[in-house]
Amino acid sequence: MHSQLGDLLSYASSTPLPPGTLVRVPLGAREVLGVVWDAPSQPQPVAAPGRPVQLRAIAGVLEGIAPLDQHWRRLVAFAARYYQRALGEVALAALPPQLRDLDAGQLQRRLRRMQSAPAPENAIEKIAYSAEQARAIAEIEAHPGPFLLFGSTGSGKTEVYLHCIAQALMAEPAAQALILVPEINLTPQLEARVRARFAPALGDAALVTMHSGMTPAQRLKSWLAAHSGAARIVLGTRMAIFASFASLALIVVDEEHDASYKQQEGARYNARDLALWRGREQGAKVLLGSATPSLESWHASRPPTADDPQGGRYQRLHMPSRIGAGALPRVRIVDMGQQPRRAIFAPPLLAAITERVQRGEQCLVLLNRRGFAPVLHCHACSWKSDCPHCSAHQVFHKMDRSLRCHHCGAASRVPRACPACGNPDIAPIGRGTEQLEEHLAALLRNVIVEPQGRAARVARIDADTTRARGALEEQLAQVHAGEVDVLVGTQMIAKGHDFRRITLVAAVQPDGALFSSDFRAPERLFALLMQAAGRAGRDAGYVAAQGQPPEMWLQTWHPEHPLYAALRRHDWPAFAAQQLAERLGAGMPPFAHQALIRADAKSQEVAQAFLSAAADAARTAALPGLELVHLYPPVPLAVQRVAGVERAQMLLESASRPALQAFLAAWQALLHAERPRHRGLVRWLVDVDPQAI
Ligand code: ADP
Ligand code: ZN
Ligand code: ZN
């Protein structure tokens, strides 16, 4: 099996090789990595009657590595089938690249360095669990799951994960646990916490991480550790769902609603969904956790009712209270219609920030960047800094006075005057975090932080300030050390960080997502704001000593919007119920299943013509499942042109997942056949269960 080829290839071997064996095989003039998929089931292929094909022999077996087990092979085969990709592509993407590159001697040296797992000792923490934690733990022990742990930020979900991991590892001397997190760079604290908890009992080598920021050598090491069983705990991002385990017993998916579990290129898999599949297939317990679950998981975990005696497939566990009686922050909504015109910070919010900072407390200002990147604009002729290659604006970066396209990366220098009319007075419209940081620093210029008696400090964390390796950690350390009074940033700062002295969080322009064309935008906004709110008042002792309850401020032009009303009460269930009622009425996920087919081409006409022709071909051929699948007309993408390529998509929807799957599987051949008929078509791809429409 090989990555560029869809189908299995046959090779000869002088000795029988069990399925899953890693081998080197000749392909053309090269030697590539392969996996023995099946023992030969059919007689040898025949080239001409009576004359068997001469099979090429494998070049060698990767000695010392146990074959990939059937669970791994089934997972890979399922993912390839479900997400409409070649088996070889998915399998080889799931293996560390160095397996291919190292020669036999190098590999042997790596393998010798691996330690075997030490005998497990008692790793259960002797802390008194809250009643809610104790109940969740008891349920998880008593039932097969899968579970959705619906707990407020700071309710002690992570402690529940750690307890369940300890339980699983102690129940079975070889058992392993997988913890999936959205982005490893954002959660160094979790890694430290897991290490502190388990390294004393299991040794430091028993925990390994897996994420895309690792070097090939580190990836190989982690992969071998999981595969051999030396690692008892794997902490990783979405890619880790494809790790090979010797004995996987538990999968935890933290922040299960997070969009980064969906891979956005190649095989567009969703690691959370694969975790559920994998857990069921190999009998590992699956524990999803979130303060704002995805509506899919929320619906799948609905309790049984009189009308719906079955209820959902998952078991929902609820932990509403924060540990240590730390209250969730009070939500304050500022009606921007009542504020001075053009105010970026409403006066009452600015006063609240000032007061907190003066007392030595920290504040966090969140800018939901989507749609708010600053664009250069000429007031005389309304010229805007458009990207020459994309249907998007280039964004103004003040730091190096450049204009940059966030889609294709095209950069240019800021012009001295309007390129269209020569007006020298061109200025950015809209605000980015950089402008916000500057503006706030100016507003707080004269504020003195007591008791130190020093001037207030504003800092910014976003994609621009954290590009360098280690930059994020360094900046977070400054916040933790109290060197920063107000932190300004994007969604990046809303996630997971355990800031101890932040008592006020403000979202300054959250409205953008209320009226988005993507039906998931409100769900994302609510989750983001709840998560951001969770950064405030995490240390109940500190809050009590300071004497002022934590607050979350929202500046909005739509104070009556039901989303904000639910947010004010921290009422995810009410918001979810309202959203689900809308989705049910409109026949949208989770009540329907979707796939997108996208075409990129030289022109929009070619892209759409390919999609229309593919739909016509499906109808003519009366493909299986077609009667239950609705094909919408092709439309341009929201950002229609990127790097000079036009993009179009077509949405497929069905109430039946099997029908949609049967249709997509049968459609592949027609799509391949259609492709050469469309000159100027660059590529096409299928996205099953798309996250963004
Ligand atoms: P979550 O993952 O839900 O945000 P955590 O597990 O991080 O919550 O818990 C929040 C804080 O409370 C952490 O500092 C944690 O150490 C502490 N904590 C959790 N459970 C307990 C407990 N039973 N007793 C005391 N402290 C706890
Ligand atoms: Zn102009
Ligand atoms: Zn561009």
Task: Give the helices and strands, then pairings.
Blueprint: E1 22-27, E2 30-35, E3 46-48, E4 51-52, E5 60-61, H1 70-82, H2 87-93, H3 98-101, H4 104-113, H5 131-142, E6 147-151, H6 157-171, E7 176-180, H7 188-202, E8 207-210, H8 216-228, E9 233-236, E10 248-253, H9 271-282, E11 285-290, H10 295-300, E12 315-319, E13 330-335, H11 347-358, E14 362-366, E15 375-378, E16 395-397, E17 402-404, E18 411-413, E19 426-429, H12 433-443, E20 448-449, E21 454-455, E22 458-461, H13 471-480, E23 486-489, E24 502-507, H14 521-533, H15 540-546, E25 551-556, H16 562-568, H17 572-586, E26 593-601, H18 604-620, E27 629-631, E28 635-642, E29 645-654, H19 657-674, E30 681-688
Parallel strand pairs: 6-11, 6-12, 7-9, 7-10, 8-9, 10-11, 13-25, 14-23, 14-24, 22-23, 24-25
Antiparallel strand pairs: 1-2, 1-5, 3-4, 15-19, 16-17, 17-18, 20-21, 26-29, 26-30, 27-29, 28-29
Helix pairs in contact: 1-2, 1-9, 5-6, 18-19
From the spread of the alpha carbons, the general shape counts as globular
Within CATH, the superfamily of the largest domain carries the name P-loop containing nucleotide triphosphate hydrolases
Strand order of the largest sheet: 8-9-7-10-11-6-12
CATH topology of the largest domain: Rossmann fold
Distance between the termini: 34 Å
Radius of gyration: 27 Å
Please state the second-level CATH architecture of the largest domain.
3-Layer(aba) Sandwich
Helix content: 25-40%
CATH class category of the largest domain: Alpha Beta
* Count of helical regions: 19
Kindly name the structural category: alpha/beta
